[in-house]
Each structure stands twice: as structure tokens, then as C-alpha cells.
């Protein structure tokens, strides 16, 4: 599938400030990854050459955002930057009420605590680690209702973020609408490979949930990226602007949680937004306990100003064209090298299929964790495991969950790296692929209770 009409997607900016990168030796990297328990989250960033761990809080700010930092009004209450941010959220996303939080999981905590009761079920288009944990901590059970294609790395279905409407309706019929406080819809779906949901599907989800009187809560962390994919892949919307599609997506939902560290181009920040006054009042009560006053929610004034500007920049076509163009450039190279990756390409990174890359390593020996460590050893490129370690344990049986998708995510920060960096990354993955037979798996030697992938430690088998 051709993503863009024009062959070239040159960055719509020139570079004003640079940060040096350092290359280490293989011997050094072998030592530090062993010390880090073969977990890329436990490496020091100064030991990393090209950092593709995450696109979260790692984007480069524009000169306008930097100027915005200088306009930070660091008052404890009623900072003018809060009102700028609130205006931007209302203008671009359309939600009525806004509660700021320090980042996405702060918003998830508050939203889940308000809406979920013990014994409730929350259907969603695939789990996300922090989102699901907050649903569980509030007493709920997450139910996956994404289309089957999303669990198949080789399916070329263009909207792998879609909800399977039959699965959703069966959950509603089985559990009863009163046990379902909301349906959780993510744009895009991170764990599936940054895969978009179509507007046609979201409209159908709206229609179905309205019939049963169930809310939709939107994880809008990468909504502009999803909107760009709709523009490119969904015929009826090809002439809509990214901003118009973003607004339409939001209008089909009742409220949202946002990690502004992604689409909105800031180092820190988030919010929850709703149209329902009752939920807003509850959230305003909770935010002062866990995050900060309702006009800063854990952010500095300068962060809120940068976010207001970042939201506006995130819906510009040229920005998205270059951002997703770069991700697809890397993906296309890997496809040409014959590397098994999740297809079609998504939005925020390229996801290696570790089950096919290292077929000789059983899933209980953590093929994706192993592969991420090997890529780091090869070149100093840092990636992230998204497989059995990330999936955690079943809360009732205590056994590992064995997800279909056993992936390594090469996540691209926005406006940070160049095409030449992407070439280096592709060459490194290729060189690991060539020596894959000699790679052995890992065993876990330390496992934290929650979100284990962040701090777990491993040793070579
Ligand atoms: C990431 F390994 N994402 O992709 P917060 N929803 C969605 C996210 O992508 C997201 C949050 C909510 C991260 C950071 C991260 O298992 C992990 O601002 C779709 O990070 O609190 C965050 O937003 C949470 C990495 C989070 C992970 C959890 O890299």
C-alpha cells in the first residue's frame, strides 16, 4: 500500500540546535547490557547511540514551543498557560471540560477510579499496559474486542485498530450493559504496532454503544497519527484535513485520557477531558489529591504552554507526512532486507516480529527481550520489548500470559533523527538477523509486581 502521493517527505523544518551522540564499543555494550539485566529500560541513556526506546517525551520541540517555555506563568493557581492549553484542547479536540495531569497514566488513574466499580468489564481495542493496570486496580476486568487481524503480524488489513463489533456486542450481552462503564478506544493501537482504527468502524462502535447507553472513553495519545492514516487509507476522508478528522474522532467519544508526551510534542504532561459535568466534578476533586491543583495537575506553566503550541503543530499535514514518512522509510528498508516485521506499517515505530526472527527461542525464554538486547549489543541502538514480558501474568492463575504478538519496537521520536540514522538502524537489525542462529534466550531472575517489563532483570540461559 502506498502511503503518500509524493515520493519525498522531506522534513518541514531545518535544524537549529543539535545534541551530540556517542558511539561505544561492542565490548562496552556487552558489559553494560549484562549489568542492566538485559533490560533496555535499565540502561543509562548516555550509553545509548540511537535511542528508539520510545516516542514518549522524546520529541524535539519547535522554536515556537521553546519560546513558549519562556512565557511560563509559574503561579500556583490560575496560570495563563493553563487557559491556553484548555483553549487548544477545546479547539482541536472539542471536549468541553479539561483536567490536567502529569502524564497519561495520571489521567488513566483518575478516569478509571471514577467510572469503574468492582466487577465491571471494560472492552477495548487491545490492552495497553498502564491503561489495563489502572482498570484492574479500580476493580475492573479488561476484555479484548479488537479484530483478529490485529493479533496477526502478517495480516495486511489496513485498520488493525478496528473493534470487532460481534465481539463487543457479545460482551455486552453476556455481562450486561450495566456492568460496562465504558468501551476503551485507543487511537492508534500501540501494542498492535501503532495500528489505526477507521472512522467507519468508530462510527459503528458509537452506534452500538449508544443503543446500550454505554460511554466511549478515548485513549487519544496518538489521535493525530491515527487521523493521518485515515486520510491516507480511508477513501471518503481523503480530502479532509488531519485537524478535521481529529475533531470528528473525538466527537464520537464521551471523554478521553491523553499522554501529551507523544502526539502533542512535549516532554511531560497529559490530561483527561470529558463532556459530562458529573465526571468533570469528580475528576477535579481527585486531581488535587494525586496530581496537583486543577489548573496545573503536576505540570509547570511552561509545560502547559508548550503543549498548547504542540497540539496545534501536531495536526499539520506536513509534520505528519514527514513523521510517518520516516517510520515507513525504516519499515520499507527492513522489508527489503527480508526482516519479519508487523505489517502494514503503523505510525510511531517499526515492530520486529521476534517469533519469526528467532524461531528457535521458545516464548518462555523471551525472544523479544533477547532481540532488543542483541540489537543494543550490535550497534548501541535501543529498542523495547513488547511481548511476553510486557503482557505480564494472568491475575487469576498467576501464569505468564502468552500473547500472539512477540515484538521488538523500534520507536521513532518526532523530529529528532535523520534518514541516515534510520539507515544505521536498518543495517544493525540486518546484521543481527544474519547471525540469529547463534543467539540464545534469557531467563528472568527478578520480577517486580506491577508493570514488570520496566524493571525485570534477566540472565543469559
Ligand atoms: C510508550 F513501555 N506510552 O509508548 P504516560 N496510552 C498509550 C500510551 O502509549 C501510553 C500511555 C497511555 C509509552 C510510555 C510507556 O508499558 C509502557 O504518559 C497508548 O506514559 O503515562 C504511554 O502514558 C501512558 C512505555 C508506558 C511502556 C507504558 O512508550
Description:
This protein has 16 helices and 14 strands. By secondary structure, the protein is an alpha/beta fold. Strands 2-8-7-6-5 form a five-stranded mixed beta sheet, sandwiched between helices. Strand 5, helix 7 and strand 6 form a beta-alpha-beta unit. Helix 4 (104-115) runs parallel beside helix 5 (129-137) and helix 14 crosses helix 16. The longest helix has 20 residues, at 317-336. The model has no long low-confidence stretch (mean pLDDT 97). Ligand P61 is lined by residues 54, 56, 103-105, 128-131, 186, 190, 219, 221, 259, 261, 270, 384.
What are its keywords?
alpha/beta, 461 residues, binds ligand P61, three-stranded antiparallel β-sheet, five-stranded mixed β-sheet, 16 helices
How many distinct beta strands? 14
**Secondary-structure element order, as H and E?**
HEHHEHEHEHEHEHHEEHHHEHHEEHEHEE
The largest β sheet comes out as: 5 strands, mixed
Low-confidence stretches: none
β-strand percent reads 5-15%
Into which percent range does the helicity of residues fall? 25-40%
Strand order of the largest sheet: 2-8-7-6-5
Q: Which small compounds were modeled alongside the protein?
A: ligand P61
The dominant shape is: globular
Average pLDDT? 97
Count up the helices.
Answer: 16
- Terminal residue distance: 41 Å
Helix-strand makeup class: alpha/beta
What is Rg? 21 Å
Amino acid at each position: 500500500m502506498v502511503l503518500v502521493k509524493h515520493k519525498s517527505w522531506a522534513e518541514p523544518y531545518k535544524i537549529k540546535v543539535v545534541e551530540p551522540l556517542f558511539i561505544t564499543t561492542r565490548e562496552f555494550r556487552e558489559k553494560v547490557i549484562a549489568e542492566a539485566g538485559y533490560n533496555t529500560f535499565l540502561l543509562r541513556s548516555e550509553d545509548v547511540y540511537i535511542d528508539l526506546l520510545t516516542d514518549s517525551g522524546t520529541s524535539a520541540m519547535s522554536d515556537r514551543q521553546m519560546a513558549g517555555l519562556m512565557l511560563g506563568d509559574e503561579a500556583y493557581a490560575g496560570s495563563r498557560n493553563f487557559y491556553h492549553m484548555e483553549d487548544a484542547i477545546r479547539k482541536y479536540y472539542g471536549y468541553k471540560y479539561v483536567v490536567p495531569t502529569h502524564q497519561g497514566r495520571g489521567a488513566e488513574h483518575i478516569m478509571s477510579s471514577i467510572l469503574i466499580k468492582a466487577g465491571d468489564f471494560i472492552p477495548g481495542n487491545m490492552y495497553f499496559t498502564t491503561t489495563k493496570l489502572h482498570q484492574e486496580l479500580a476493580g475492573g476486568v479488561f476484555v479484548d474486542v479488537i479484530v483478529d487481524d490485529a493479533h496477526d503480524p502478517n495480516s495486511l488489513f489496513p485498520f488493525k485498530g478496528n473493534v470487532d463489533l460481534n465481539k463487543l456486542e457479545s460482551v455486552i450481552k453476556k455481562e450486561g450493559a450495566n456492568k460496562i462503564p465504558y468501551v476503551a478506544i485507543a487511537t492508534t493501537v500501540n501494542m498492535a504496532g501503532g495500528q489505526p482504527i477507521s472512522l467507519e468502524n468508530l462510527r459503528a462502535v458509537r452506534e452500538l454503544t449508544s443503543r446500550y447507553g454505554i460511554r466511549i472513553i478515548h485513549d487519544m495519545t496518538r489521535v493525530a497519527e491515527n487521523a493521518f492514516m485515515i486520510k491516507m487509507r480511508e477513501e471518503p476522508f481523503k480530502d479532509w484535513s488531519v485537524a478535521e478528522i481529529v475533531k470528528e474522532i473525538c466527537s464520537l467519544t464521551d471523554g478521553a485520557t491523553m499522554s501529551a508526551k507523544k502526539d502533542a510534542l512535549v516532554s511531560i504532561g497529559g490530561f483527561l477531558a470529558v463532556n459530562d459535568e458529573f465526571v468533570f466534578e469528580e475528576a477535579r476533586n481527585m486531581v488535587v489529591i494525586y496530581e496537583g491543583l486543577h489548573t496545573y495537575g503536576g505540570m509547570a506553566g511552561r509545560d502547559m504552554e508548550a503543549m498548547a503550541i504542540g497540539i496545534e503543530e501536531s495536526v499539520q499535514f506536513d509534520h505528519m507526512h514527514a513523521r510517518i514518512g520516516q517510520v515507513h522509510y525504516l519499515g520499507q528498508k527492513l522489508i527489503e532486507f527480508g526482516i519479519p516485521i508487523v505489517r502494514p506499517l503503523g505510525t510511531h515505530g517499526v515492530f520486529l516480529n521476534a517469533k519469526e526472527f528467532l524461531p528457535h527461542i521458545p516464548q518462555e525464554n523471551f525472544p523479544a527481550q533477547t532481540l532488543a538486547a542483541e540489537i543494543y549489543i550490535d550497534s548501541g541502538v535501543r529498542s523495547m520489548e513488547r511481548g511476553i514480558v510486557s503482557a505480564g501474568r494472568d491475575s487469576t492463575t498467576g501464569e505468564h500470559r502468552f500473547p500472539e504478538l512477540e515484538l521488538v519496537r523500534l520507536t521513532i521520536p518526532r523530529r529528532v533523527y535523520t534518514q541516515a540514522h534510520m539507515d544505521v538502524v536498518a543495517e544493525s537489525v540486518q546484521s543481527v538477523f544474519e547471525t540469529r542462529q547463534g543467539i540464545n534466550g534469557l531467563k528472568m531472575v527478578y520480577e517486580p509486581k506491577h508493570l514488570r517489563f520496566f524493571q525485570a532483570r534477566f540472565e543469559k540461559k
